[in-house]
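Continuing the batch. This is chain 6 of the set; chains 1 through 5 are on the previous pages. Same settings as before, nothing changed between runs. Recording input and output for traceability.
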Amino acid sequence: TIVPELVGLTFAVHNGRKFHSVYVSENMVGHKLGEFAPTRTFHGHSGDKKAKVEGAA
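Output for chain 6:
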């Protein structure tokens, strides 16, 4: 858990694949460091391809 003494420091947090630098700010107090190292990549929802073709025409 992030405590007020850690504000202003930077940590290297491992997300399962690589390390991410996490700078601790005041609004992060009370949270866990892992919350700020995303583990999944969002590529977007698959849209309706038919609507894309009609919109371009």
